[in-house]
C-alpha cells in the first residue's frame, strides 16, 4: 500500500512512519522540514520524502496523486496556545485536495483512505451522559470544528477520526490494523 503521512516527523507521525515501514508499506513523508527525519531514513528504499506545507493545496494534490491512504498527523498535538493552531486549515486543505484527486481517478477506483488525528478530546467518557472529554476538560476547540467539518463536508471522503490518548517520548510501540 502507498501511504502518505502528513507531519511525518512529529511525535504521532514518526510513530506512524515507523509502523508503516515495518509493515512493508511504501510511504511518502510529507513535512515542512525534511531534516527533522532521522538521517538513517533518508535513503530507506520504501520511503519518499516530500517537502511541503499542509496548507498548500497544490503541494497536497501532488503528494496525494499516487496514494492509497493518508495519515494526517500534522498539528495533531499542537504546542500552540489554546485554540490557535492551524489544525482547521490543515484538515480543510487536505479534504479539498483528497476530493480533487479522487474526482480525477477512474470511477471504479478504490477511494483514498484518510485517517485524521484529533486527540482524545473527542473521546466519549463513560458515565458522563453523552459528553465528550472536551466538554468535561476543555482542550483545543479546533478538534470540535474538524469533527463537524468531516461529518458535514467530507461525506464523499472515506475518512476516520483517530483519537489517541497522550503520546510520550520513548520507545515507539504502534499497532496498526486493517491496513492492506
TrEMBL record:
InterPro entries: NAD(P)-bd_dom, NAD(P)-bd_dom_sf, Polyketide_Oxido-like. Pfam families: NAD_binding_10. One of its GO terms (molecular function) is oxidoreductase activity, acting on the CH-NH group of donors, NAD or NADP as acceptor. Residues 7-171 form the NAD(P)-binding domain. Gene3D superfamilies: NAD(P)-binding Rossmann-like Domain. PANTHER family: FLAVIN REDUCTASE (NADPH) (PTHR43355:SF2). Belongs to the avfA family. This is NAD(P)-binding domain-containing protein. It comes from Letharia lupina.
Amino acid at each position: 500500500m502507498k501511504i502518505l503521512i502528513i507531519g511525518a516527523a512529529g511525535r504521532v507521525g514518526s510513530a506512524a512512519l515507523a509502523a508503516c515501514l515495518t509493515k512493508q508499506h511504501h510511504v511518502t513523508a510529507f513535512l515542512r522540514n525534511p531534516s527533522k527525519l532521522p538521517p538513517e531514513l533518508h535513503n530507506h528504499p520504501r520511503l519518499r520524502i516530500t517537502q511541503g506545507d499542509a496548507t498548500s493545496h497544490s503541494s497536497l494534490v501532488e503528494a496525494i496523486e499516487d496514494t492509497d491512504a493518508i495519515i494526517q498527523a500534522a498539528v495533531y498535538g499542537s504546542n500552540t496556545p489554546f485554540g490557535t493552531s492551524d489544525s482547521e486549515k490543515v484538515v480543510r486543505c487536505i479534504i479539498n485536495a483528497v476530493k480533487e484527486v479522487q474526482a480525477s481517478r477512474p470511477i471504479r477506483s478504490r477511494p483514498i483512505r484518510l485517517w485524521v488525528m484529533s486527540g482524545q478530546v473527542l473521546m466519549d467518557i463513560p458515565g458522563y451522559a453523552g459528553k465528550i472529554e472536551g466538554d468535561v476538560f476543555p482542550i483545543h476547540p479546533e478538534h470540535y470544528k474538524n469533527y463537524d467539518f468531516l461529518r458535514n463536508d467530507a461525506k464523499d471522503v472515506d475518512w476516520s477520526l483517530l483519537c489517541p490518548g497522550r503520546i510520550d517520548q520513548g520507545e515507539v510501540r504502534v499497532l496498526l490494523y486493517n491496513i492492506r
